[in-house]
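fyi for ur records
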Amino acid sequence: MKRMTTLLCVSFSFILLSGCSSISQSSYDDVVSANENLTAKVRNLQQENTQLKGTINDLKKEIDDIKNGADRMLAGAKDSLTKGALGNAKDKLNALMKKHPGSKEAGIAKTLISQIEEKERKKIEAEQLEKKRKQAAEEKRLAQALSKMRKSVDEVKSITWYYDKTSPHYANENSFFLYIGKEANISWLRLRIQYEAENWLFIEKYTLKVDDKTYSIFPNRDEIIRDNNTRIWEWADVVPSESDIPMIRAIIKSKKTIIRHEGDTYYDDRTITKKEKAALQNVLDAYDALQKKKIATQKRKPLRKTLQSGLP
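which gave:
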């Protein structure tokens, strides 16, 4: 910078002196000589600058070779392979082949890429096989779960009803059980609580003592159906609420569950049997298989008054 400034000053002085007619010849010659010397120095500086740029580029290339040399790039790709990052390793190997196409490392990279692609192909095949295996297992589970059910088809409404084979066919038997309705691809659960005796209770609610926990079910008035012959029958047939499902699971796992049928004045107790617990589990399994997802219940709906003592 100082040299350039000096050159400019000398050049400016030369111009001034050139414009002055009274300058001596010796002074003029001195200025011309100084200007030529500075011009030569500028050329030298320009050459040095060009050489420095070349040196910088050479250094950059050396740094790039150190950082992205074929051996270093291959080592990085192998490290990714060791870590199981196949995609990352493949990207690094492709970059190596592009940057160093004629190197021996590029040949190794090509072989490794073929191995990676083979692993990826086998992985996809394994995933497809596992998917098929799970699908087959699910179909088998569905078949096994439904094999424990008896089926009744309502051809008019196009509804198929599934019951555990041990559940009662009619209302003239004490029972606490689930069953399933299925229309097209839609399935839903229903809970039926039956009471049979000599005398009416006019049931309003049900209380269940499940080991050390107590639950209550409050059916709507139109969900309690009554009928009689030589004995009386009272039953509730409802869509189980969201809170009913955990209760039912607790009943299945319980050591002892007592159900109390409570009327406006009297009540009657009985113990849920092992057979009823097994039937509850069978229906949940069948429902879960039909849904192919976790239990999901519908909002409770009132029972149609046309339902009689026989099951749908």
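The longest strand covers residues 186-197. thats all i got for now
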